[in-house]
Design brief:
Elements (H helix, E strand, L loop, with lengths): L10 E3 L5 E6 L10 E7 L8 E2 L4 E8 L1 E6 L2 E6 L3 E4 L5 E5 L5 E8 L8 E2 L3
Antiparallel strand pairs: 1-2, 2-3, 3-10, 4-11, 5-8, 5-10, 6-7, 6-9
């Protein structure tokens, strides 16, 4: 059985600049075709606009509020919101609130730095 606790998982910075704690993926479990991680965006910060040619993602906001842009459409987000991001779609997150924006990220296939392409250069 693979059981991970968020408090025991080391953080790392993804290519887009968000802080990630990878809960389950091929790097630390028997999972092979997807990944689950918690991402954190500090107050007043944002990720770089990027896309993933292969991976589709689901973002589930657990704490805070912010704004997301997908393919140029911008929406406000808050705790309890779920967002679908299809492969190849340009996206970016901003923390517009007064606490750390925290979200669960489900990626299929699993997150890889090599599958992140910056679009706002």
């Amino acid at each position: 059985m693979d059981l991970k606790n968020l408090n025991d998982v080391p953080a790392f910075i993804t290519k887009d600049g968000s802080e990630i704690r990878e809960l389950l993926a091929h790097r630390n479990s028997a999972i092979r075709h997807q990944s689950l991680a918690e991402a954190r965006v500090p107050v007043g910060d944002s990720t770089q606009e990027h896309r993933h040619p292969r991976a589709e993602e689901i973002y589930y906001i657990t704490h805070g509020q912010g704004r997301i842009s997908i393919e140029g459409e911008v929406r406000d987000i808050k705790a309890g919101d779920a967002v679908a991001i299809l492969p190849g779609q340009r996206h970016r997150l901003w923390n517009t609130g007064d606490e750390t924006l925290r979200l669960l990220c489900c990626c299929s296939p699993a997150y890889e730095h090599e599958d992140t392409v910056f679009t706002d250069l």
